[in-house]
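The freezer alarm interrupted the setup, so I double-checked each line after restarting. Inputs confirmed:
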Amino acid sequence: MKFEQLAAAVIHDVKNQLQSLMDEEQLALEQLPDQYRSIVEPILQRTSRLKDDALQLVILFRLGQNRPFPMDDAWPRDTANDAIEAAAIQFPSVKLVNDIDEDCQGFYNENLIHLALMTLITNSAQAGATSITLKAEEVDQDSGRLCIQVIDNGPGFSKTMLETQGESADEHSSHDDGTGLGLYFVKLIVEHHKASIQGASVVLTNNSKKGACVTLNLA
Amino acid sequence: MLNIESSLSSKRILIVDDLVQARSSLKNMMGIIGAQSIDTATDGREAMELILENDYDLVLSDYNLGKGKDGQQILEEARFSNRLKATAQFILVTGENAVERVMGALEYEPDAYITKPFTLSMLRERLKRIFHTKEELRPINEAIESGDISQAIEIANFLLESKPRLLLPVSRILGKLYMRQERYEEALYVYSQPLNTRMVSWARLGQAICMHYLGDSLGALALIRQTLVDYPMYVQCHDWAARILLALGKPEEAQEQLELAAAISPRAVLRQMELGYLASQNGDHKIAEVAFEQSIRLGRHSCYKASGNYLQFARELQHGLTSEKTRDNINLRNKALRAIDELRQEYSGHVSIMFDTCIVEGKTYTAVAESDKAKEAVDRAESMLARIQTPTPDQRLSMTEAFIDTGQHVKAKDLMNTMRDSKASNLAQNALDKLRALEDKLNAMTIREHTAKLNAEGVSLYEQGKLMEAIEVFDQAVKYDEVGVSVLLNAIQAKVSHIERTELDIRQLKDCYTLFKRIGNVGHLDERYDRYDRLKTTCIRLKRAAGL
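Predicted 3D structure, all chains:
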């Protein structure tokens, strides 16, 4: 067996084990008396974060091998719901809103976009946002062109970030105190969709009053 | 959007997963969202038994089911055996790494797939979407179910116009329907529509298949190769590349493609069978042997179980068999006989299959020089053939060959005469060719036996000192082109001895030179060289003495 195959198998196993661990922890939470829940909840949050990291590794590994992720019909409301459900475990105090129409439809790899949304929600929450809203709009129904937005009420992007759109080598962070890896990962995902959807891009803006907005143009 | 709870409550559901935890978790989730009638299966075998017994509205199967069949194979068997209505749903549950394979299936594609891991709400949402789409496609599926393909095409075209959101699922069905009616131009157009704006792997494969049937096989092959660059695990692309290469008269390259496909997805019985027959045709008996062995193993508990796999497996093994008593040879022999035994047990009531079984058994014993057992098997084949009301030309030809192999030349000749006399005009060209080849084989064997007999007689007369009589017998033997060097040397020896003992018979001496010419050169290392050299020296001396 090749080293890459072995590494891929191990990463997959780690991801699956973490998912099982999460299931067990959730089961334990349901059965525990209320006073003990606060002890277990942080464990679940960390496990959830670890699982997302493992999932990122799986995706990065495959992207690194230039292996394509197949695209299919997908519904942003469902993808956003999945991301919100997962993020809610890690950030229970943040208000997460899915403001996407049920009929809104796109053409993308659901796993990748789910992970991109998770990453953007994590970025916003870590930057201090207390409310995050997900929106989506079909730009062209026939071609499945779509834009998805993650809008928060946090501190917003710095001037440099907005000018470079996160392209400067030392500053990939969507918010000033991050490592920048999250946004870089999101860009990789959107970049990957370019093979199927020409003109795919990530656009960073600040809201008129307060907060940041990241737009994924799958168009 | 429909109400998933009420929709699920009336459905008969089957859940297939080899992992107990995953199985019960999915069952619990389905129960929570409204399912009331749920069966579970732990593997492909159990799943197929349940599918054959019950009418399921929904099957939720994990893709990877451990050692046995995978979820895709359950789907193929269920649809192949018509145990799933077009309106029933088959959903594959898969890890992210197998999505590529699941999505690409063009012939037996699942209605949908759900990627793991998922939570209860994710499952609910996904099922809602799947059911909603299936509901929208219902009129097409009902027309298919009733066998009215033209009506299904009409509805599909209407849906494409009126509901552009259904472009992908409807194009997928419509492309297949057009292909069923051999309307490849229209199918090509249908597949090209989603490709205008999206990269959809199955639509590219669909295009390639249409191009092939429309005569542009090279273009089709190029498109498939391009798709494989993007999706190297897209196994159906390899399958179709093989079919197209075969049509282009490139069987070795076709075999390479099937080998690649089998390496990606080794558990598909039909693919292993296809590879086996192609490799056999290409003379690659080792690959064919492995492929048929796999076909037997995988087919044991499937609707694809076929007697042909056992027979071909034994035939492929015969190519490696010799009369030597080595461990490897004995293992091969036993492997072939085990397959034959299993075949006999599985198909005991089928006279034709039992006939083929006896023929293959006889050949196996012949290959390892166990002539008594070979003859017993051929005798059984003969009695089986007598029980077949109208034997096919192939069966008669097999019987003839078996008779020849076991030295029953009279029976072989009789059967060949019967074939020639009674149905000569009805025999297909390839059957006639086979018949001629068998006649040649029989003639060659008869001559070999006849000349061996004459040689033995000549040697006996020579040893008794009856030289002229020996010469006469050897002269009869050497009339046949097929006689070997030893017989020719014996004939020369008799003539030389006669000349030396009685008189310098010029005619006999000239005959010796003619026979030397037929022998040609005998190498120094040949065990017959000394004798050859001695006789040649004597002849030269006699020639000089005769003044020739």
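Quick read of the result. Chain B touches chain A through 33 residues (CB under 8 Å).
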